[in-house]
Amino acid sequence: MELSERITNITAGGSDGWDTFYRARRMIADGIPVTELNIGEHDIRTHPDILNAMHSAALGGHTGYAVVPGTDSLRSAIAGRIQARTGVPTTAANILVTPGGQAGLFAAHNAVCNQGDTALYIDPYYVTYPGTIRSVGAVPKAIITTPDTAFQPTRAALDSAAPGAKSLLINSPNNPTGAVYSRATMESIAATCQQHDLWLISDEVYDTQVWDGDHISPRALPGMAERTLVVGSMSKSHAMTGSRVGWVCAPEHVINHLINLATHTTYGVAGFVQDAAEFALGQGVSVEETVAAPFRRRRELSLSVLAGQNAVRAVPAQGAMYLMLDIRATGLSGEGFANALLDAEQIAVMPGESFGAAAAGHIRVAMTIDDDRYVAALKRLVAFASEMVEQ
Prior knowledge:
This protein is an alpha/beta fold. It folds into 2 domains: 146 residues, Aspartate Aminotransferase, domain 1; 222 residues, Aspartate Aminotransferase, domain 2, CATH 3.40.640.10. The chain is built from 13 helices and 13 strands. α3 runs antiparallel to α10, α5 packs across α6 and α11 runs parallel beside α13.
């Protein structure tokens, strides 16, 4: 008997981009100390007050089946946050609570893509994007960006790819590049979607991590609320990665159908976890700023370490918890450099090729360990690259 083509084709028969990460974890399991700069996991844990709220909710009995769309109070809290940040009228009816942002991406593509539809996404991209599109039976098609435009998609590239497509997936602030899409870029995206009748799926999980520029949700642009599905999450904003609380914000009729999908797949999110998320949102923006602060600080530390040398060049990091580094001066691919660095220095980074063709010759560094260890590791990385350039 054979498995379905849909399940066996999620990675298109190739790598899922995590090979170097898995190799680093095997080294750690074998007792080899590895400095991990490869995964977007906060070095601080979920705040004890949030955990206490989760504990109290569980002890209080909120451990049975929760309402599938999400509790009314959490949906209202998420809607209030979105309305406050974007100015777009938003109610609980516009929100579906999901088990994390990844489940939200899957749900959103299920909502707008039929079998065989072309679904666009921007390259470089988060590693799961093409697989998520394939998992709903759609056909992924990349729109290539370049370092010359700071990895922001151009109107020409968008319009060239759009004919015949059904949807477009964007991510700003962007993982892996750190690009924060400008208003001009967002207006180009909106114009392309309207001209070619595309659904827009906007992954905004890093909306609290903006170091340069402003976060613009395309749902707030004229004519876009009715064709935009926004994916959000508590993972990055509140250091709740393991709690698996995300959402889709969309027109009410879309949410009604997504509730049917959730009923037949996840059947909701644990009630005590939702209560903790509601508590966390109720603490206001100060909590989000506290969670984001280490990455803002490490971005500045990174620029100091990288100054005055030519072996490693930083792509302007406007947001998110990552630094994209151009290592083409070493003569190695991103994958080759990442593996050589892991062998020689026991420092684990993600190869740029894990995030698409546009990121070839780059590596992604996650700024997710304490300042002193981070600076020391980055200095070792630069010294390693400099030796290669000098050879």
